[in-house]
Specification:
410 residues; Aspartate Aminotransferase, domain 1; Aspartate Aminotransferase, domain 2; binds 4'-deoxy-4'-aminopyridoxal-5'-phosphate; PyrdxlP-dep_Trfase; Aminotransferase; PyrdxlP-dep_Trfase_small
Length: 410
């Protein structure tokens, strides 16, 4: 009997006393080692391209040479990029605070003075986007993802009808967690759709802009230009960072937008700091050099993590293929695999895995308010453990899916 075999396998799994962590999309220490040289930089160098001394105050917008290096991959003109600290999430947070406490460009009042503020959240999506909105009382409205990006019929309908909808979260390339890259048509529709709110914003979190796993990099359309051409120049806030390029804890982040939004953002930023950490910016420029240097560096990451993504796919196929108990994404980039189990099973699979010493992102985290109504989606983050640990963890996870599937579905 399948259920007996599943129970036996599960007891055996528990007996192993595992302690494995697949919760967060962190680079492994071997990946961090790829940027070891960064810790020895900038050495004696301290002069920026414009002749300024990076050790001193100033340079609020960030080094122009670093902005130029990332301008192409983020699809934002150099003059319209701002370099932030080590976290793009912090720049998203600050953008929301600035919108709440200061009137956004084109807006009529501060978001804090609106009766209701809501964001569309394509699901499955990134839990920290949702948590950030929740913290400030912004209502979260889920919209389904499709293989081309968010369901645009639904997005257009909601955004045109409800002036309380001020934003949408988008991870346009190798989305967290399902690996989807938005089609050109989706991007064009997002850029051009009518919005009831005059200060509607697309939060374009291009966290995985250069994080390819294959030799055919995904290309996405240039949302900033398309929005400007459609008469919505101030609609898009673009974000990116080197958290998964260089050092997750000591990288640099970016905000990009229209000239008016960049001036608006700098107006707030400049009240809280006299200037950015330009020494870190300079060492990033020396280390990455140019776009070719960046791409070569990302190929080295891909060589380290591709085998991990392949192992997940191979083990899930072997242990769950043809059982009807699971389907999963095979992303061409990014940091995550999304595993779909039968309705009503995700929480129980995660609980059983935890009992066997395999920590997974909580079921539901991929949805607003931590509530996946179908209780079906599990996010797998394969990059951090080493390959052997990962193989044990995924095989254990498959055992948990078989057990829960057999118990719940008979
Ligand atoms: N956005 C997305 C979609 C992410 O997956 C992550 C990291 N998991 C972040 C942002 C965090 O970026 P940062 O380190 O630049 O704050």
């Amino acid at each position: 009997m399948e259920i007996e075999r599943a129970r036996r396998d599960y007891e055996e799994l528990r007996g192993k006393g595992l302690k494995l962590d697949l919760t967060r999309g962190k680079p492994s220490s071997t990946q961090l080692d790829l940027s070891a040289e960064l810790l020895r930089l900038p050495g004696d160098a301290h002069t920026a391209a414009d002749g300024s001394d990076t050790r001193n105050y100033g340079g609020l917008q960030g080094l122009a040479e670093l902005r130029a290096l990332f301008s192409g991959v983020l699809q934002v003109p150099t003059g319209q990029l701002i370099v932030g600290g080590n976290s793009s999430l912090a720049m998203m947070h600050d953008s929301i605070v600035y919108c709440l406490l200061g009137v956004p460009v084109g807006g009529e009042r501060r978001w804090a003075d609106e009766e209701r503020v809501a964001f569309l959240c394509p699901v499955p999506g990134y839990d920290r986007h949702f948590a950030l909105c929740e913290r400030f009382g912004i209502e979260l409205i889920p919209v389904p993802m499709t293989p081309d990006g968010p369901d645009m019929d639904e997005v257009e309908r909601l955004v045109a009808a409800d002036a309380a909808i001020k934003g949408i979260w988008c991870v346009p390339k190798y989305s967290n967690p399902d690996g989807v890259s938005y089609s050109a048509q989706t991007v064009a529709r997002l850029a051009a759709m009518p919005a009831a709110a005059p200060d509607f914003r697309i939060f374009w979190d291009n966290a995985y802009a250069v994080h390819h796993l294959t030799d055919q990099p995904a290309e996405i359309a240039d949302v900033l230009t398309l929005a400007a051409e459609a008469g919505h120049p101030d609609r898009v806030f673009v974000y990116g960072s080197t958290s998964k390029v260089t050092l997750a804890g000591s990288g640099v982040s970016f905000f990009g937008s229209s000239p008016a939004n960049v001036a608006w953002f700098l107006g707030f930023l400049g009240k809280g700091t006299i200037g950015a950490d330009k020494v870190n910016q300079l060492r990033h420029v020396i280390f990455l050099r140019d776009e070719d240097g960046l791409r070569a560096h990302m190929r080295r990451h891909a060589e380290l993590i591709r085998p991990k993504f392949e192992a997940v796919d191979r083990i899930l196929s072997k242990e769950l293929g043809g059982t009807g108990l699971a389907s999963w994404s095979s992303p061409a980039g990014g940091y995550f695999i999304s595993l779909e189990v039968p309705d009503g099973c995700a929480k129980e699979v995660v609980r059983r895995a935890a009992e066997a010493g395999i920590a997974l992102t909580p079921a539901g985290a991929t949805h607003p308010y931590g509530n996946d109504p179908a209780d079906r989606t599990i996010r797998i983050a394969p990059t951090y453990p080493d390959l052997e640990e990962l193989e044990v963890a995924i095989s254990g996870l498959a055992t948990c899916v078989r057990l829960v599937g057999a118990e719940k579905l008979g």
